[in-house]
Specification:
With 342 residues, this protein is α+β, with helices and mostly antiparallel strands. The chain contains seven helices and 17 strands. Strands 5-3-15-14-13-12 form a six-stranded mixed sheet, with helices on one face. It is globular and about 65 Å long.
Length: 342
């Protein structure tokens, strides 16, 4: 049975650590690979990324597999969450061996952050190593194939998408070949996810089930958004993060192509993207449990196309699962508050 989430890729687990109240509105999400790690790659398209260990994912480098990926709030400060994940992995002997003693390992934990500083009211309330440890412990404690919480959780807790509340979303599919492809996205975009002329979600055009709100509903939503924007202390800063994953046996170079193509899924659901002050980053993970079918030179294409489509679906889910925020750091209505469930 599948749960339409990143955890449908067997062996992957997802954990969230969420902090709200008393000035907090932030969190961290960890994708934990199975024992032995997963082939990993990354593609950074934004001009202002906040990342850690992404150079190690270049196909020309030594590291072939990683044990976890960290997505976190807190801007560059929040990258400290990866330290907590590294410590947890080291305690279990997971990482790159660097000596004859099995305990001598260096976990390679790629990480990327979104800007949510001050959205809970306290600029200094941001994820740290303890937050990262809490998220990886939550991932490790989850059952195989567990459902993944969506909306205002983990790294999506303090996110905003074009003036409305952002969040975490996930989706998956099984290809005709039996290969599973999945995505998890943290939506925190300065660009819009909603068509300003109609109120429809850009990402739903791809899915062929666009829901056009009534004109009176759309007018009321625009008024609400304008009112909220006028009270917020500063315009929203941004960065959309994603992890695309598959159980196919692919190389680092192929995984890097998968990460790059997945950015198309962001571009279909967020407008504009990849600007100088964006940090848009996509990680790719491959567990290698199913053969790709290398007898066909274009066998990877189905995975590439599915990854991009799933990123778009996950963005729509993140926005629809979000809840409104009205606090000391700002006011961000949710899409469901503005337009209702359809």
């Amino acid at each position: 049975m599948t749960v339409d989430a990143l955890t449908d890729v067997a062996g992957l687990r997802v954990g969230h650590a969420t902090r709200t109240g008393d000035g907090w509105l932030t969190g961290t999400t960890v994708v934990l690979a199975p024992e032995g790690g997963a082939v990993a790659a990354v593609d950074v398209r934004g001009g202002g990324p906040g990342t850690k260990e992404t150079d190690a994912l270049d196909p020309r480098t030594m590291v072939q597999k990683v044990d976890a990926v960290v997505l976190t709030g807190g801007s560059a400060y929040g990258l400290d969450a990866a330290s907590g994940v590294m410590a947890w992995l080291e305690e279990r002997g997971r990482g790159v061996p660097v000596g004859t003693d099995p305990a001598h390992v260096v976990p390679v934990v790629p990480a990327a952050c979104v800007f949510d500083l001050g959205r809970g009211g306290d600029f200094r309330a941001r994820p740290d190593a303890a937050t990262g440890r809490a998220a990886v412990e939550a991932a490790a404690a989850s059952a195989p194939g567990a459902r993944v919480a969506q909306g205002c959780v983990g790294a999506g807790t303090g996110t905003v998408a074009g003036g409305i509340k952002g969040g975490v979303g996930t989706a998956s599919t099984v290809l005709d070949s039996g290969i599973t492809v999945a995505a998890l996205v943290v939506v925190n975009a300065a660009g819009a996810v909603v068509d300003p002329e109609t109120g429809a979600l850009y990402g739903e055009f791809l899915q062929g089930r666009v829901a056009y709100p009534e004109e009176r509903v759309h007018r009321a939503a625009r008024r609400r958004l304008d009112e909220a924007a006028s009270t917020n202390p500063s315009p929203p800063l941004n960065t959309t993060l994603a992890v695309v994953a598959t159980d196919a046996d692919i190389t680092k170079a192929q995984a890097q192509k998968m990460a790059g193509t997945a950015h198309d899924g962001i571009a279909r659901a967020v407008r504009p993207v990849h600007l100088l002050h964006d940090g848009d980053t996509v990680f790719a993970l491959a567990t290698g449990r199913r053969p790709l079918g290398n007898g066909h030179p274009l066998a990877l294409n189905d995975i590439l196309a599915a990854g991009a489509d799933l990123v778009t679906r996950a963005i729509v889910r993140a926005v629809r699962a979000s809840e409104s925020v009205d606090g000391p750091g700002g006011v961000w209505p949710s899409y469901e508050e503005l337009y209702g469930t359809r």
